Amino acid sequence: MSSSAKSKEIASMSQKTFIIRSNQGDFLLKNANVILEKEVLVGVLEAVPKDHQVYIKDDKGRYSYDSKTKSVLQEIDIYTPLDPTSTIGSSVSIPISDISKMELIEKDQSKSTTNTLLLAAGVTLGVATIVYVATVSSMNLNLSPTPTTPTNPNEPPGMSCPFVSVYDGTEFVFQGETFGGALFHSVARQDYLPLPSLKPSSEVQLMISNERLEAQFTDMADLILVEHDPGEKILADPNGSLFLVHDLDKAKVAKLNGSKEMLDRIAESDNIYCSFNDLKHDDPLNELIVKFDHPGKGKDLALYLSLRDSPWLEHIFESYMSMYGEESKAFMETMNTKSAEELYQWQEMNLVPLIVSVKTPEGWKEIRQTRFVGPVMNREIAISLEGLDLSGPTVEVSFKTGFLYWEIDRISLASVSRISSDNIHILKPSSAIDEEGKDQLASIYKMDDKFLEQTETGNKVYLTYNFEEFSEGKSYSAVLHTSGYYHSIREIEGPINREFLTKYDKPGGLANFSRDRFKEVYKFQTNASK
pTM for this structure? Predict the structure, then answer.
């Protein structure tokens, strides 16, 4: 959706109450007005009135209101960054292109006996995430926007994974999530998270924090610094291999399910995604085929991907779990006793991984099942094509996953080379101090199945790394190597929904539920826009 189209969309909602959700806090936007020719939203920031704080302060995800707070039904919540000087009384001019998401608040008519809100949940329609989602009171949604800092007291708690931030000399800057999807001890795993905001020096500081209703367990956290020439790009494979990128070639063809054009969506890093949500496709398994011109012999190749788990997948999984009601705890305890092989099999049966295959003269060859990288922000990864027969003029790649499980922002064919071990520095933390000032170094120093335990929302650990070989005349890229797992501690109330589970508790059921639920959302969005 263009900025012009978004401007008209927002202007058409002028009768609504505009609530600004930003890095500087939450505000009422008084005298809100869209200047179409400049494509900006203007107004004056004021404190959010009490009767408009129902959704903002709904930490338990109940999404309900009473007869005294009906004004919430007139809200539209707008997520956008604001200038650091913005405060109550400030006149602001917000570029429409800066708005990342809007949430329209309506009543769920299907629950007419309760005052349940009809809320938003990550359905990407364009540059902005304009969203309209129906949710019933038994479902818990994480509706959070991509934060600019890891701690947001107004952010509804949902499932995610440990947040990682780096100190840039002024503040801790959020970088991403680590070991996403490792919901049980048996599937504790290693992860390699790029840290683009880290500024290497002789001393480096990181923070790992629990920002959700979860218990999080981190086994180790090593900092990898890669020395390279200025301007060069470093990518990490999900398994830890590091590559120096020489060229990035764009695709010439990208089609979803053989017909839906996706080339513009995966050409640039612009937060316009291929979301695997083709409603015209009968099968909940969606497939994206991407073709590249072969860059020539003698080059080592890898796929460059900028992607994330879809926030919709988080919503769908939580909604699915809510159908177990009070028995959900017993269900999770049963899952916790299963082996990693059994849990991965469950994921595969429900089409959760992003399956990457390459076409060779012998046919399609699966090369990777990418499981999770986190839903909060994009991650750049490399997938090596080393050792594959790619002798033809075209390199053809397949990406398969369940309905709206993944969002891919960019796909390129990269010419790469392996990085010499002489240019890789692996640093152990020299200190690890938690939010109470306690020393946690022994629990996170090495991978030994002795975990740093962050069992409450707001737990933090501050890590310091000493880099004695640092040179101001050299360039470095940073990757955090972690290992661990986490699990939700949210309690679900109510009876088990046996009718739902009869329909969906089977192989592929989660993907079918995702597609069916999205149809409901799409129907509401279509009706709401008329």
Answer: 0.74
Q: What is the pLDDT of residues 151-182, one digit of tens each?
A: 333 333 455 689 999 998 888 999 999 999 99
Residues 6+ apart with CB under 8 A from 341: none
Task: For tokens 């920002």, name the residue.
Answer: 211
**What does the alpha-carbon distance between residue 432 and residue 443 come to, in Å, rounded to a whole number?**
9
Q: How many helices (H) and strands (E) does the chain have?
A: 8, 30
Q: Which residues lie below 8 Å from residue 175, measured CB to CB, with a gap of 6+?
A: 164, 165, 166, 193, 194, 195, 196, 197, 198, 480
pLDDT band at 85, cuts 50/70/90? confident
Looking at beta carbons, which pairs linking 249-253 to residues 24 or more positions away fall under 8 Å? 249/292, 249/293, 249/295, 249/412, 249/413, 249/414, 249/415, 250/292, 250/412, 251/290, 251/291, 251/292, 251/411, 251/412, 251/413, 252/291, 252/292, 252/293, 253/289, 253/290, 253/291
Q: Tokens 């991907």 — which residue?
A: 305
Give the list of residues 6+ apart from residue 480 with CB closer than 8 angstroms, or none.
164, 175, 178, 192, 193, 195, 206, 221, 222, 223, 224
pLDDT tens digits, 389-407: 998 899 999 999 999 999 9
Least confident of 57-71, 165-179, 203-217, 328-342: 57-71
Mean pLDDT of the chain: 84
Asked if 32 and 74 touch (Cβ cutoff 8 Å), the reply is no
- CB-side neighbour CA atoms (13 Å) of 391: 4
- Cα 353 to Cα 381: distance, rounded to the nearest angstrom: 15
pLDDT bracket for residue 61 (50, 70, 90): very low
Q: What DSSP assignment string belongs to 386-429?
A: TT----SSEEEEEEEESTT-EEEEEEEEEEEEEPPGGGEEEE--
DSSP 224-281: EEEEE-TT-EEEE-TTS-EEEEEEEEPPSEEEETTTEE-HHHHHSSSS--B----TT-
> What DSSP line would sit under 101-135, residue for residue?
EEEE-EE-GGGTTTTBEE-------SSSEEE----
pLDDT in tens, 113-164: 333 333 333 333 333 333 333 332 222 222 232 322 333 333 334 556 899 9
Determine the Cα–Cα distance for residues 152 and 161; give it in Å rounded to an integer.
15
Quick check: 216 pLDDT over 50? yes
**Alpha-carbon span 205 to 209, nearest angstrom:** 13
Locus of tokens 């399609």: 364
Residue with tokens 């010439």, as numbered in its chain: 252
Highest mean pLDDT among 2-6, 270-274, 505-509, 519-523: 505-509
Per DSSP (E only), the strands in 294-362 are 300-309, 354-360
